[in-house]
């Protein structure tokens, strides 16, 4: 049996990638519908060899749609996800709107697939923040082996994490630098071309940014509430691919060789760690790929049981669209949709 799948935000960075990934992975869809705002109604988007006409979200009836993959931002999700879910369609949302709701599972299939069983309380499943998704894929197998006590992570996040407008701003500013045009910053708070900005999302009372808080809160929710996490989130002039320098303190001893062997076998991870020139992964290498890449695995000589890692992934894929499609596959493979319909 095939499913009817709606992609909401189908004209955006994540939505277009969702359409690609549904097709690439042969998701069992009888019909795929592309939805966005009324601004995009009638525009063409690509699903494999097929061209889909974009339809307006607020004119669409979800009553015979099984799954909605949603990537249209937090305010749209808050307004629409409960309405869509009430029509019997399971919503997999990419925004932060429901991630911290106790009745909404927050899922990275390689990490906490079993938590999906709680989805029927609200018919909504949350996809994590892009930085958290790749982080927990790398942390989970190490935590299972040596129990993580504390994580210190510094992120190097690409502009595509801020949507189409973020990519356009890096392109326009870079062009303006070369032709000596005036440079304006609209999407980012300072110039991003040939610069880095230590600020993503809004500031919180303790001086952290919301992005940094999300990495902490989501890692605890998915992996283990006992793990201490501190984060510095930085925007860098890279189009696609988030990188993270990760320092981990464990309760039990673990060597770099042991970590390398564990990560080589771990689902979703790909270790590329030759200690020589170019023997590591950069964000450019990760663009268009599904794996979470791990390089620069080494012991931290300043801690009893400490390791350093370099973790890189395509933020539009593992950080968003791929993970959302994997969640949809989990619903199908565990027959959760059929049970819901039968009920
Ligand atoms: N980029 C990432 O790395 C990443 C990772 C994880 C999560 N996310 C989350 O995914 C969401 C989308 O990100 P993105 O990077 O794809 O942004 P984007 O490129 O700016 O795309 C936004 C999408 O939302 C649609 N949209 C806006 N207002 C709408 C409305 N009123 N009704 C229906 N659709 C509407 C847009 O349609 P129009 O073209 O019609 O305006 C567009 O398709 C955000 O919540 C973001 O936080 C992104």
Automatic annotation (TrEMBL):
Q: Report the sequence similarity comment from the record.
A: Belongs to the aspartate-semialdehyde dehydrogenase family.
Q: Which CDD domains match?
A: ASADH_C_bac_euk_like, VcASADH2_like_N
Q: Which NCBIfam families does this entry report, sorted A to Z?
A: asd_B (TIGR01296), PRK14874.1 (NF011456)
Annotated pathway: Amino-acid biosynthesis; L-methionine biosynthesis via de novo pathway; L-homoserine from L-aspartate: step 2/3; Amino-acid biosynthesis; L-lysine biosynthesis via DAP pathway; (S)-tetrahydrodipicolinate from L-aspartate: step 2/4; Amino-acid biosynthesis; L-threonine biosynthesis; L-threonine from L-aspartate: step 2/5
The protein here is known as Aspartate-semialdehyde dehydrogenase
Naturally occurring in which organism (per UniProt): Aureimonas frigidaquae
Complex formation: Homodimer.
The UniProt keyword set, sorted, is:
Amino-acid biosynthesis, Diaminopimelate biosynthesis, Lysine biosynthesis, Methionine biosynthesis, NADP, Oxidoreductase, Threonine biosynthesis
Q: Which domain of life is it from?
A: Bacteria
Q: Which InterPro entries match?
A: Asp_semialdehyde_DH, Asp_semialdehyde_DH_beta, NAD(P)-bd_dom_sf, Semialdehyde_DH_NAD-bd, Semialdhyde_DH_dimer_dom
Binding annotation for phosphate: 99
* Catalytic residues as annotated in Swiss-Prot or TrEMBL: 130, 242
Gene3D superfamilies per record: Dihydrodipicolinate Reductase, domain 2, NAD(P)-binding Rossmann-like Domain
State any single GO MF term. NAD binding
- What's the EC number here? 1.2.1.11
Q: Report the protein's function.
A: Catalyzes the NADPH-dependent formation of L-aspartate-semialdehyde (L-ASA) by the reductive dephosphorylation of L-aspartyl-4-phosphate.
Q: What is the lineage of its organism?
A: Bacteria, Pseudomonadati, Pseudomonadota, Alphaproteobacteria, Hyphomicrobiales
């Amino acid at each position: 049996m095939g499913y009817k799948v709606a992609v909401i935000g189908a004209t955006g960075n994540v939505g277009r990638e969702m359409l690609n990934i549904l097709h690439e992975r042969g998701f069992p869809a009888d019909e795929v519908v592309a939805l966005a705002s009324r601004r995009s109604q009638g525009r063409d988007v690509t699903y494999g060899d097929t061209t889909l006409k974009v339809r307006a979200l607020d004119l669409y009836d979800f009553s015979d749609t099984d799954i909605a993959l949603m990537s249209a931002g937090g305010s749209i999700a808050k307004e629409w996800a409960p309405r869509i879910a009430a029509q019997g369609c399971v919503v997999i949302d990419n925004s932060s709107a429901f991630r911290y709701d106790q009745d909404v599972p927050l899922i990275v299939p390689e990490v906490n697939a079993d938590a999906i069983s709680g989805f029927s309380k609200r018919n909504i499943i949350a996809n994590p923040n892009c930085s958290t998704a790749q982080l927990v894929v790398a942390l989970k197998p190490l935590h299972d082996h040596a129990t993580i006590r504390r994580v210190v992570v510094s992120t190097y996040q690409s502009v595509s994490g801020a949507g189409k407008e973020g990519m356009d701003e890096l392109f326009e500013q870079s062009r303006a630098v070369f032709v000596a045009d005036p440079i304006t910053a609209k999407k980012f708070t300072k110039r991003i071309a040939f610069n880095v900005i230590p600020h993503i999302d809004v500031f919180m009372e303790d001086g952290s940014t919301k992005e940094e808080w999300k990495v902490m809160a989501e890692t605890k929710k998915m992996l283990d509430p006992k793990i201490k996490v501190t984060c510095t989130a930085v925007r860098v002039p890279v189009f696609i691919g988030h990188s993270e320098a990760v320092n981990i303190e464990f309760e039990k001893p673990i060597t770099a060789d042991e970590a390398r062997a564990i990560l080589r076998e771990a689902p979703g991870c790909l270790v590329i760690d030759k200690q020589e020139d170019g023997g590591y992964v950069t964000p450019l290498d990760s663009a268009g790929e599904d794996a979470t890449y791990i390089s620069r695995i080494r012991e931290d000589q300043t801690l009893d049981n400490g390791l350093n890692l370099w973790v890189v992934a395509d933020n539009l894929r593992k950080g968003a669209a791929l993970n959302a499609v994997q969640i949809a596959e989990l619903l199908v493979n565990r027959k959760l949709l059929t049970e819901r319909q039968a009920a």
